[in-house]
Structures are given as C-alpha cells and as structure tokens.
Design goal:
single chain; Rossmann fold; 2 domains; six-stranded parallel beta sheet; 11 strands; globular; binds nicotinamide-adenine-dinucleotide
Length: 285
C-alpha cells in the first residue's frame, strides 16, 4: 500500500479559516485587531523571504503585521530597547524574532527580554516551563504544526509509540511533551543514539527533525506507521527532507512530503499563537 500524503497546505487552510473567523468575531466585539511585530536583523535572503510570507499570510487572516527590518550591525542595547517598546505597545500582541541573529547579539538575553505574554514563538523560558508543567502556554510553531498534521490523519495517538529524531528546543523537546500529553510513549533520538534504525522500526509514529538528508530509510519504518519529515536541507537547487520519501511511502500509512509538508503550516501556527495572545489581552479589557 502507498502511504497517504499529509499536505501542510491542506491542514493550514483549515486552521487559517478558523483563525480568520475568530479574529473577525473579536473585532466585531471589541473594535481591535491583533498585532504581530516581526523583527529581522540583517539581509539574509531566506529570512527576508520568510518575513514577507508572514506579512502576506498574517494580513490575509486579518492580523496587522509590523515588520522591523534592522541593520546587521545594530547593537544589543538598541535591539533590547526596541523589544521593550514592543512589550509596552498596547496594539502589539505578539513579538517574533527571526533567527539566526548576527553573532554579536546574545540570543538568550534577547529572547528573555520578550514579555512572556507576547512570546508567540514559545521560546521564552517561562513559556517553556509552562509547557513542561502542562499549563496553558504558547506552543512552539513547528512542534504545534506537527501535532496538527498528526491530528489531520485522525489516527489514534493514545498508547502509540513515537520516535522523534532531533532534540532541539523548538521541535524535538516540545513535540515530545505534546505527544506525551496525548498518552503516546516517546523516544527522543539524537546524534548519540545507538542503533537508530532498530528504534525507529518499533515506532507507530516517526518524526524526523535532524537536518540530515534522506537518513530515514524505508527499512527503518514499521508497516503502516505515520512518518513526518520536518528536516529541510538545501541540496544543490532543491530543498530535501530527512526521509527517503520514495522508500518510506511504500511502507507507511501516512507520510508528509518535503517541500509541502510541515513548512507551510509553521507561519499559520505563529498566527494562531498571535490570536491566542490577542484573545487573552481582549479578555482583560
Ligand atoms: P537542530 O538543527 O538544532 O538539531 C538537530 C538535531 O538532530 C540534534 O538534536 C541532533 O542531535 C539531531 N541529529 C542530527 N543529525 C542526526 C543523525 N544523523 N542521527 C540522529 N540525530 C541527529 O534541530 P532543529 O532546529 O529542530 O532543526 C532540525 C531540522 O528541521 C533542520 O533541517 C531544520 O531546517 C528543520 N526545521 C524545519 C522547520 C519547518 O518549518 N519545516 C522548522 C524548524 C526546523
């Protein structure tokens, strides 16, 4: 059997419709619109393309996007000042800082300066702590996107075994907590893992988020498993994933492609978090 495709655009479309409708209701009720500030430092073409995509998608859903395009040589103090101003801005409900930042800027200090109530990327330590303690919090967008894609398959998660390849703070670790909430049993794998193929062969759900092209082979996958490919690496002129798609699709029941899988959903989930931040603020006025 050939696996069914989990297409990010299809899932994103459903979520976008939900966001637009909720934003409209909130506007009708309060007269305010949600505001997202996006900060980008320097001229990295991939970052600028991502930001312009954010602008388009956000405006389409009814979110006011305020982009701060900052000079590559901006000082740490100047950047912190801008974040503080955005923290105090009544019309801004979410703050997103495009990574990577230039080396002279201290990523940790910058992230910790964001007001946790506006931390729509879910990267502030307070937000992470809440996620860890199962409190309501912003969920990092990529991990949230992967959960949405798993939900889209309508396959049960309860009692299933899930293997996540990659332990980053924005993907592997938060995803493990989200799957744990749904009563899956989780194994997080990384560069120190011994015998990764055998571990994957036991899994009902395999999430590859390593950034190592084509590493997951068809013979690593259990019959009818769900396979999510998060990795994106540019190889010559193509973006490729961590999964050998042709091999794995012959064994899996569902599989996400690259491109066209998780990628299209991440901006949508950023807007979802902005809606959450906006709703919380409106509840308080
Ligand atoms: P990272 O790049 O910070 O770290 C990679 C992780 O994978 C590490 O934990 C490492 O131990 C593990 N790893 C790397 N090679 C491995 C191997 N051969 N075997 C086992 N483990 C291995 O992680 P990240 O920031 O989560 O990014 C991972 C990948 O996901 C990258 O390709 C990135 O571009 C992609 N990504 C895509 C999206 C999207 O929107 N589609 C979003 C975020 C990240």
């Amino acid at each position: 059997m050939t696996a069914r495709l989990i297409k990010g655009d299809e899932v994103a479309e459903e979520v976008r419709a939900e966001i637009s409708s909720e934003l409209k209701d909130l506007y009708d009720g309060t007269g305010y619109v949600a505001g997202l500030a996006v900060i980008v430092v320097g001229e990295n073409p991939t970052s600028l393309a991502y930001i312009s995509n954010c602008e388009k998608q956000g405006e389409k859903m009814g979110i006011s996007i305020q982009v701060h395009r900052l000079d590559q040589n901006i000082s740490q103090e100047e950047l912190l000042e801008i974040i503080e101003e955005l923290n105090d801005d009544f019309f801004i409900h979410g703050i997103m800082i495009q990574m990577p930042l230039p080396e002279h800027l201290d990523h940790k200090v910058i992230v910790e300066t964001i007001d946790p109530d506006k931390d729509v990327e879910g990267v502030h330590p307070i937000t992470m702590g809440k996620l860890f303690s199962d409190e309501k919090s912003f969920i990092p967008c990529t991990a949230h996107s992967i959960m949405k894609m798993i939900e889209h398959t309508r396959q049960p998660v309860y009692g299933k075994s899930a293997v996540i390849i990659g332990r980053s703070n924005i993907v592997g670790k938060p995803l493990s907590l989200l799957l744990l909430r749904r009563n899956a049993s989780i194994t997080i794998c990384h560069t120190g893992t011994v015998n990764l193929p055998d571990i994957c062969r036991e899994a009902d759900i395999v999430v590859a988020a390593a950034g190592t092209p084509y590493m997951v082979e068809g013979n690593w996958i259990k019959q009818d498993a769900i396979v999510l490919d998060v990795g994106v690496t540019q190889v010559e002129d193509k973006m490729v994933g961590d999964v050998n798609f042709q091999e794995c699709r012959e064994v899996a029941s569902w599989i996400s492609p690259v491109p066209g899988g998780v990628g299209p959903l991440t901006i949508t989930m950023l807007m979802w978090n902005t809606l959450e931040a906006f709703r919380k603020k409106m509840d308080r006025i």
